[in-house]
Amino acid sequence: MIAILLGPPGAGKGTYSGKLIDIYKVPQISTGDILRANVKEGTELGKKAKGFMDKGALVPDSLIVDLIEDRIKADDCRNGFLLDGFPRTVEQADALEGIFNKKGLKLDRVINIIVERDVLFKRLTGRRMCKVCGGNFNIYTLPPKVDGVCDKCGGELYQRNDDKPETIENRLNVYEKQTSPLIEYYRKKNVLSDIDASKGAIDDIVKMITGVLGKK
Ligand code: AMP
After folding, report:
1. pLDDT tens digits, residue range 60-76?
2. Whose C-alpha lies nearest to ligand 1, atom 19?
3. Is the CB–ligand 1 distance for residue 31 below 6 Å?
4. Of 54, 106, 109, 162, which one is least surrounded by beta carbons within 10 A?
5. Which CATH number is associated with domain 2-27+74-116+168-213?
6. Which member of 19, 36, 109, 127 is catalytic?
């Protein structure tokens, strides 16, 4: 199963991916997670990406496309994968199509997660991540059992630099301008399904997504 989760920052792509990878037994490929790991390790890529990420801007396509091409070559991707946060521009989507054509891979579905803007804002300001395992929590909607501590590994929770209110506004605008054209791009290719995720528990939304993806 090869699928893309499309949606604005705060739509829950990471949360739903975390559940979907257990169901479909394929890896989640989050370009945001890969970039954050590179920033943390101080790699060349991390150094180049950090400034863009802190502002809430997109990292240049040239830095992202090779990274994805490399990642999907890995052995754990042989039964498919779930892309979370990639592609984010029409140029990235075109490049992805080129990679798929070259490798004989077929995109099964793009899930377009729709969430109202004020809900997104609240989710993003409430989001906390684990410093150790990258686990996702939310002080409003998915609080950890112990304040500031990861339920899964006991690591310390922190607020991402780009989840501060001043940066969130910019990230939502960047999504509207640069990423939302992908909705029509994939709709025209007849691979897009809309999922309204403004209301409903996480497991209900996951059920809606598996209803669309089917059994694979
Ligand atoms: P995310 O965790 O998906 O919200 O990504 C965090 C940040 O990483 C974004 O605001 C961008 O700066 C950068 N980023 C992640 N994925 C991409 C991508 N596909 N293209 C460009 N920049 C990206």
Report:
1. 999 999 999 999 999 99
2. 86
3. yes
4. 106
5. 3.40.50.300
6. 127
